[in-house]
Amino acid sequence: EHHRPIPFLRARPAPRTALPADHRPLTARPDTRTPGEGQPRPQRHGDARHRRRPRRGRRRRPPLRCDRHHPRPPPRPAHHRQGRPRDQGHAHHLRLSRPDRPHPAQDADVVALLRAAGALIIGKTNTATMCQDIQTSNPVFGKTKNPFDRTKTPGGSSGGPAVAVAAGLTALEVGSDLAGSLRLPAAYCGVYALRTSRGAAPIVPTRGHIPRPPGWLTSSDMIALGPIARTAADLAVLLDVIAAPAPADGAAWRIALPAPKFTSLSQYRVGIWADDDYCRIDSTTRGLLDQVTRLVRGAGATVDDSSRPVELATSDRLFRRLM
Known about the structure:
The chain has 9 helices and 10 strands. The chain has 323 residues and is an alpha/beta fold.
């Protein structure tokens, strides 16, 4: 499936189905409220997860594998204190999963940072084989489908995390991105994702991601880890936790990200890549992109719909070489 022609990319994001009138999207900020503010205690999250563990003998594999190594990790001291738990760390009372992999001897650095911040990691989600595809399927756990239309793909390779956030299983997720593995699933599932910068060193530690054999072309210096969330504000919540030195290096240095140069959309020049002769989009998607263009221009930004960082045909050819 790695060699399918580019029209495979034409699978547009599935339309959202109707939601109940009292539906409240799961975000990181409401989930960090104290129990007195109407939100369930993290301890109850852990207890519920234990009760729902798949029983032995079931023929069908569970869609979400529970984290059995750290079954009940919520930080109790923060549970019984008054005030917002943000004083105890951004990730207190949050529920996350992580892509499925064999049980390692220790946590990856990004997982260790999440645990140290008080996050509840409830399980592991699906990914493409070797994290290398624009869909999410593998021989072990099968195919992950788009939560809004199960006839369509959620994208890949971080399709499992994107589906978990879109379907409301978790408020936040972490994935990896070499050539779109965070951004594609987020776009297909209608959520937010950020491929973090690397520079001389990644701002999110990558140790423990996927060990590469000698001579592997997609070495770790090309891969970046980043957050997936339901809102842009939630991306910032998780980025504050994972954009940090590896736990083993924490005493030696720290990350101090610069403040943004601009604070208003009107100060930015925004590129719009609405369509391309190499891979045409349908009229419905084009109409939505034109609407975005009008909104961005109406907010005062300078819109550039002609400049391209690279031709799409060239990008596709390079992408296939990476795969």
